[in-house]
Amino acid sequence: MTPFPQVLPPSAELTPEGHLAIGGCDVAELASRFGTPLVIYDEGLLRATARTFVSELTAAAPDSEVVYASKAYWGLAMLRLAGEEGLSVDVASGGELHSALAAGVAPRRLYMHGNNKDDREVDELLDAGVGTVILDNFTEIASLERAASERGLRQRVLVRVTPGVDADTHSYIRTGHDDSKFGFSRASGAAAAAVAEARAAPHLDLVGLHAHIGSQLLDLSEQPEAARLLADFAAAVDGTDLRLVNMGGGLGIAYTRDQSPPAIGDFCRQVVQAVHAEWDRVGLPRPRVLIEPGRAMVGRAGVTVYRVGALKEQAGWVDAAVDGGMSDLIRPMLYGATYEALLANRVEDPADATVRIVGKHCESGDVLVQSARLPRPRSGDLVCIPATGAYGVSMASNYNGVTRPAVVFVDRAEARVVTRRETYADLIARDEPTPT
């Protein structure tokens, strides 16, 4: 029995040697074979989660659609997997768009987000044939109309409405409040003006609304309120033509042993039932419902493995410095995210030490886990941090010239590299040579 079963992939188990295994692969052997830091994804869980979202949402509403929020992890292997499992994909930049197209995602299945799509990105999305653009500001409405007119095409769009819901999550990942940087405020009248402007644009085809109230939501009680406010707004703008509503994502995952996120099925049913009930209340035809899971799609499926180097005795705890840190897992430093930890090579040893897991970067705040009860660590031990599948790889950097980690997919006792480890040569590949 491995510790923290709710944060590790369900395939996690102990080997006869007392090592952690995921997807039938010994994590210690993977670290030896591929090096550390190493990001490991359970491919079987990725596919199972995608299928669960699709089956649960379509059971609640047969014409609904699951859109993978690729910002959580936009590696080509994951984007291909999303397409293979019948998911649409949302992208939020030209780079994410390029990656999705390179992975073979059908352009009509793409939803283009972003609060500052520049002219180049507008050109790129139109030339690629992106299926749907989520309008975020008036500048964008004008630039998209102009570019679509030049091409003689009509682009399908949604208006992103900020409904005025303060979700119970960290302020940095709260997006539904009135002064959010995203979307058009309902309360200020900007959303109504955006709908009117999009309707009047000859080369924009307004088909619905989008709203997203925040991320890492562990309480579903705010979804009905968001649906109520959106339905009231749709009725106020005579929304019979708004036949699609995208309620965003936000479903949380368990990062620590004391967190209990809602089940995927409960989330899907809650969203669909809330939308249907509220549109019925205001007398509008029920719209097609979309959701955009990202973290909940990939978070639990990924773990990050580090090797312990230097050890330092402190007053009441041990600092264990690992060979990564804020360059590959910045969430603890960015907004105080908390994680569990275990020693992947000594899972069953007694947890007899309080350990602070620190990174190797030149920042005092480079702390991955503030306090963990672990076997007293030794140099060479392997620290595994579960539930790092979302926003670890996608937010990684080269701070201090540290190379970004390799990523492997594991399934049925087989492991394959899907992203190679960066080299020192990669770090300077974009720099111009010094003139001689």
Strand share of the residues?
15-25%
* Class computed from helices, strands and strand pairing: alpha/beta
Low-confidence stretches: 167-177
CATH level 1 class label of the largest domain: Alpha Beta
The profile of the biggest β sheet is: 9 strands, mixed
What's the CATH architecture of the largest domain? Alpha-Beta Barrel
Terminal Cα span: 62 Å
Q: Supply the number of structural domains.
A: 2
CATH topology of the largest domain: TIM Barrel
Mean pLDDT: 94
* Principal-axis shape: globular
State the gist of this model:
It is built from twelve helices and 21 strands.
Structure, explained:
The protein is an alpha/beta fold and 436 residues long. The chain folds into 2 domains: 13-35 and 301-427, Beta Barrel (Lyase, Ornithine Decarboxylase, Chain A, domain 1), CATH 2.40.37.10; 44-297, TIM Barrel (Alpha-Beta Barrel), CATH 3.20.20.10. It has 12 helices and 21 strands. The chain has helices at 27-34, 43-60, 76-84, 94-102, 119-128, 138-151, 190-200, 222-236, 264-282, 295-298, 331-335, 424-427, and strands at 13-14, 20-22, 25-26, 38-42, 65-69, 88-91, 110-112, 132-135, 155-162, 184-185, 204-210, 244-246, 288-291, 302-313, 318-322, 342-343, 353-358, 367-374, 382-385, 406-411, 414-419. Strands 4, 14, 15, 16, 17, 18, 19, 20 and 21 form a 9-stranded mixed beta sheet that branches. α2 runs parallel beside α9 and α5 crosses α6. The radius of gyration is 23 Å and the shape is globular.
Secondary structure: elements and pairs:
Layout (H helix, E strand, L loop, with lengths): L12 E2 L5 E3 L2 E2 H8 L3 E5 H18 L4 E5 L6 H9 L3 E4 L2 H9 L7 E3 L6 H10 L3 E4 L2 H14 L3 E8 L21 E2 L4 H11 L3 E7 L11 H15 L7 E3 L17 H19 L5 E4 L3 H4 L3 E12 L4 E5 L8 H5 L6 E2 L9 E6 L8 E8 L7 E4 L20 E6 L2 E6 L4 H4 L9
Parallel strand pairs: 4-20, 5-6, 5-13, 6-7, 7-8, 8-9, 9-10, 9-11, 11-12, 12-13, 15-17
Antiparallel strand pairs: 1-2, 2-3, 4-14, 14-15, 14-19, 16-19, 17-18, 20-21
Helix pairs in contact: 2-9, 5-6, 8-9
